[in-house]
């Protein structure tokens, strides 16, 4: 691997000469700006931490099971028990279902939406059951956003089934189910910042023809089987996800899954300390390419050597199935910070530019 040019130069002031006011102000603000960077995630720590935020404490209102079949049943006037609190189904004003505590009981699902293409949002709900049903189930439903829900103690926490395409699933806590999030024959979905942990099977399962979806910043840890399990699913992208202490592999790509890209994820303690990922598919890539090198994933059992200090282990990581990650990372990666985490450094940088600019204008 080509080494990087890491040369640097420096200079300093000597003697007792007083620093110009411009430099003094700039140094003070630079120190404050540097200190504010401590708010960002620290990639050098090897201590697991949650990638999905714990849902805010919400005052839920009890509600019976919700079932919507077709766009017309989103109309709250005609179907007053549908849980819709606002919206007209347009992209700018979607139907909103929010704030409900639903005990699934003997129904098929706590919230069921099927055969719809209206825009809708399911958010801030607590859906739970007896382990034999769905918490939130979508069947042939598109244009949905499922956000900041807690889905627990059921068969599937969130399920996207049969042509449930172009949906966004984010910031949900899907724990203590059989599968946290389950996708079947559904594509072009985005799953991010979900906490899919402590499930009996997999944190996230893609079962049969789930293609062209993006998975980022999800925490798939401490599951009894896999962090994410792929079966006959291709052309998906996974990055900045965390896989800690799953009983089996962090990720399993089962044939004929192909052309998936997996990079910048963190794996630790999976499969009892053995090989942490499994791939018997075709042409799946576990690192990016580029010059002077690509970027792979962090594997807790292979963090060195790194003789040229470029953050890339000098050896490849071998997965079960004969596939390799050619550019393993030496330190774990953490989720991309939210705007609220980077606003202080941004403000600090703007203040430096503003004050320095004004100081220079003075005679």
Outline the structure in words.
This protein is mainly beta and 363 residues long. The protein has a domain at 61-281: Single-stranded right-handed beta-helix, Pectin lyase-like (Pectate Lyase C-like), CATH 2.160.20.10. Helices cover 11% and strands 30% of the residues. It has helices spanning 21-36, 339-361, and strands spanning 61-62, 66-69, 84-86, 95-98, 100-103, 109-116, 120-123, 126-128, 134-141, 144-147, 150-152, 156-161, 168-170, 173-175, 179-184, 190-192, 202-207, 214-216, 226-231, 237-239, 242-244, 251-254, 261-263, 266-268, 277-279, 298-299, 317-318, 324-325. The strands form 5 sheets. A 9-stranded parallel beta sheet has the order 2-6-9-12-15-17-19-22-25, with no helix packed on it. It has a 9-stranded mixed beta sheet with strand order 3-4-7-10-13-16-18-20-23, with no helix packed on it. A hairpin with an 8-residue loop joins β3 and β4. α1 runs antiparallel to α2 (339-361). The longest helix has 23 residues, at 339-361. The protein is elongated, with a radius of gyration of 24 Å. The chain starts with 20 loop residues before the first helix and ends with a helix. Mean pLDDT is 83; it is low at 1-19, 22-54, 336-353 and 359-363.
């Amino acid at each position: 691997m080509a080494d990087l040019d890491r040369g640097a130069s420096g200079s300093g002031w000597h003697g007792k000469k007083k620093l110009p006011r411009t430099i003094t102000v700039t140094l003070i603000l630079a120190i404050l700006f540097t200190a504010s960077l401590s708010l960002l995630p620290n990639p050098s720590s090897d201590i697991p931490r949650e990638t999905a935020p714990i849902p805010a404490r919400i005052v839920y209102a009890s509600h019976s099971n919700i079932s919507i079949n077709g766009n017309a049943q989103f109309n709250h006037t005609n179907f007053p028990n549908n849980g819709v609190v606002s919206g007209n189904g347009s992209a700018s004003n979607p139907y909103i279902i929010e704030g409900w505590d639903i005990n699934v009981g003997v129904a098929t699902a706590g919230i069921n939406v099927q055969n719809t293409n209206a825009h809708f949002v399911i958010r801030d709900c607590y859906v739970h059951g007896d382990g034999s049903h769905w918490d939130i189930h979508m069947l042939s439903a598109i244009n949905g956003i499922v956000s900041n829900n807690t889905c627990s103690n059921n068969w599937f926490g969130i399920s996207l089934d049969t042509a449930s395409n172009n949906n966004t699933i984010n910031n949900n806590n899907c724990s203590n189910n059989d599968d946290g999030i389950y996708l079947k024959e559904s594509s072009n979905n985005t799953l991010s910042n979900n906490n899919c942990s402590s499930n009996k099977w997999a944190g996230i399962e893609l079962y049969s023809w789930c293609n062209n979806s993006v998975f980022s910043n999800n925490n798939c840890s401490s599951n009894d089987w896999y962090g994410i399990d792929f079966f006959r699913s291709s052309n998906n992208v996974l990055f900045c996800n965390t896989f800690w202490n799953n009983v089996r592999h962090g990720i399993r790509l089962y044939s004929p899954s192909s052309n998936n890209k997996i990079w910048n994820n963190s794996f630790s303690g999976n499969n009892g300390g053995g090989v942490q990922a499994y791939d018997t598919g075709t042409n799946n890539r576990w690192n990016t390419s580029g010059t002077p090198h690509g970027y792979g994933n962090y594997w807790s059992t292979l963090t060195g050597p790194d003789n040229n200090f470029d953050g890339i282990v000098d050896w490849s990581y071998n997965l079960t199935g004969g596939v390799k990650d050619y550019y393993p990372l030496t330190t774990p990666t953490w989720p991309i910070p939210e705007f609220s985490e980077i606003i202080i450094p941004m403000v600090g940088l703007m203040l430096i530019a503003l004050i320095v600019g004004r100081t220079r204008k003075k005679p």
